[in-house]
Amino acid sequence: MPLPYNKFVEVNYALSRIQDNSVLAISGFNMATTPEYLIMKLWERYRDTGHPKNLFIISDTLPATPNRALDFVARRLYEEKDQELIRGMLLPFIGWAPWIQKLTMKNRIELYSWSIGMAAYWFREIASGRPGLITYIGRGTFLDPRQDGGAVNNLAKERRTCKTSLIEIAGREYLFYEAPKPNISFIRGTTADEMGNITMDKEGIYGTVLAIAQASKARPNPGIVIAQVEREARFGSLNPKSVHVPGPLVDYLVIAPSQYQWQGGTIMFDPRISGRIIPPITPSLLPKIKLGDRKIIARRIALEMVRLVKEKEGPILVNLGIGIPTMVTNIAAEEEISDFIITTIESGPWGGLALMGEDFGISIGPFAIIPMPDMFTNYEGGIIDAASLGFMQIDKKGNINSSMLLSRIPGPGGFPVIAAGSPRVFFGGGFTAGKKKIKVSDGKLLIEEDGPITKFVDKVYKIIFNGSVALEMGKEIKYITERAVFSLTRDGLILEEIAPGVDLDKDILAKMEFKPVISDKLDIMDLRIFKDEKMRLKDELKME
After folding, report:
1. How far apart are CA 266 and CA 177, in angstroms?
2. Please, what's the largest Cα pairwise distance for the chain?
3. Burial annotation 382-420 (CB, 10 A radius, 16+ → b, else e)
4. For the CA atoms of 94, 114, 400, 500, what is the dihedral angle to 10 degrees?
């Protein structure tokens, strides 16, 4: 029987339902699940009519890549000195949004930045009718109200539209995260029927799409959900188990041209990303990584993972952060031990080959994909065995700044939850930053030109990971670079290994603003790391 109504509408009709001063929630992990068509049409409507205006935008991650979607809008707003479309935003990551960064640094909008996991969970809490999110994540970091409370610029610090508060439960400190409830949501799926039932069969992730829709619909003051989809289906034709967002949660459906339905920043559609084809993860699928300082770091991290496999006597579950840690996937495939190191990405994929850059968040050939809030449960609850994450700065207390400088504010991303929740964290990155020339010759590390920027500093610019809190919680923490490996102890950083060929005083201690404790058993890093051949880790694990 045909339905007495049809939720498919023309895009401008749906957007006309948005009132001035609305709180707008938008799904999106870079371009994955980003409703780009709705965002672009929203900008055009404001440009042509001056409405809606004074919006506050909240996302689970970042619905943008450089000069696309929300960053495209930010560019137009930056060029318009008296813009009134957006008053502020809560975005966990703006690293792929240079124009949003400019608006922020010029204090043209108020910007707040929580961890991705906090934002994803917050949507679920609001959907459940709760006032906000309570968690231990963020204690002793820039998210703590005793520091910045998640406010990124001065305008945010003045207005405090989003805030954190310190509370105590059973003698333990927690943070309470608050933000305004959304009354409008933009979400994206693949196929929808007239009732509004939505599948995500061509998407690379589920993200937080369902929770964002529910957050708008929750009381008090239930709001409106507008969904962008690629295809229309007849009611009753969709497999119920394929429906991710049930129709009663959706108010309006808009068909978007295919150019606004990209799986990632550079990929419109690849069946290996959506799970239609599951390729074997073999060395041939991966680019060959030349032996250099970045591969050395990834190899040394891989050795820690192998150690854990041996200790556990079976496969381990890990998270690999953006940048050098992601290369551990390549090392595992090269060494033919991928089955023993099960990787996850915070956006939801399990296994497969995690993509990098603007495509970070999606994977080629994952064996499972779950909603993003559920994935962060594995991190915050310490369900994973280990994580490897990058860093910008490390100080004498083991604190890490992963994402904020005076001239650069990409935001914390998933880092705070993963770093605080994982029982073991192997931070990996270059010892120095800036232009440098480092190579490997005859099994030794040669530093011909070092980076001019010191990364081991007396005090980090912003604390994104708190070393003292990690020790209090019994975490195992290591800092791995191409020339030195440190562990975190009650006495601070202890230098445990140095690379063959480097000079301890000239290449390490002289390039630090503080002096670490030097282990009585200072060792040379595993020589296999510095040879242009396999490390034979497969043999080490006695794999058949």
Report:
1. 34
2. 80
3. eebbbbbbbbbbbbbbbbbbbbbeeeebbbbbbbbbbbb
4. -50
Q: Which residues pair with 465 in a beta bridge?
A: 400
Let me know: does 188 contact 212? Beta carbons within 8 Å: no
Per DSSP, the three-state class of 540 is helix
Instruction: Look up residue 460 and give its two tokens.
Output: 């980090």
The CA angle 297-299-303, to the nearest 5 degrees, is 115
Which superfamily does 11-181+192-260 belong to?
Glutaconate Coenzyme A-transferase (3.40.1080.10)
Among candidate residues 203, 346, 482, 497, the one labeled active-site is: 346
> Over its length of 544 residues, how does the chain's per-residue pLDDT go in tens digits?
467 789 999 999 999 999 999 999 999 999 999 999 999 999 999 999 999 999 999 999 999 999 999 999 999 999 988 899 999 999 999 999 999 999 999 999 999 999 999 999 999 999 999 999 999 999 999 999 999 999 999 999 999 999 999 999 999 999 999 999 999 999 999 999 999 999 999 999 999 999 999 999 999 999 999 999 999 999 999 999 999 999 999 999 999 999 999 999 999 999 999 999 888 766 667 777 899 999 999 999 999 999 999 999 999 999 999 889 989 988 998 999 989 999 999 999 999 888 888 999 999 999 999 999 999 999 999 999 999 999 999 999 999 999 898 888 999 999 999 999 999 999 999 999 999 999 999 999 999 999 999 999 999 999 999 999 999 999 999 999 999 999 999 999 999 999 999 999 999 999 999 999 999 999 999 999 999 999 999 999 975 4
Cβ(186)–Cβ(144) below 8 Å: no
Do the domains at 11-181+192-260 and 283-540 have one common CATH topology? yes
> Is CATH 3.40.50.1820 the classification given to domain 283-540?
no
- Contact (CB, 8 A) for 383 and 370: no
Domain ranges of the chain: 11-181+192-260, 283-540
What stretch of H or E contains 236?
A: none
Q: Which residue matches tokens 């993972």?
A: 305
> What is the spatial distance between Cα 209 and Cα 189, in angstroms, rounded to a whole number?
8
H/E run at residue 363: strand 363-364
R_g over Cα of the chain: 24
Distance CA 83, CA 76 (A): 9
Cα 386–Cα 387–Cα 391 angle in degrees, nearest 5: 145
Residue at token pair 């006597």: 313
- Rounded to whole angstroms, how far apart are CA atoms 36 and 41? 9
Q: Is the Cβ–Cβ distance between 203 and 189 less than 8 Å? A: yes
Distance CA 397, CA 486 (A): 12
Q: Where are the beta strands (DSSP E) in 189-332?
A: 191-193, 198-199, 224-229, 231-233, 243-245, 252-255, 316-320
Q: Is 346 a catalytic residue?
A: yes
Asked if 17 contacts 8 with a C-beta cutoff of 8 angstroms, the reply is: no
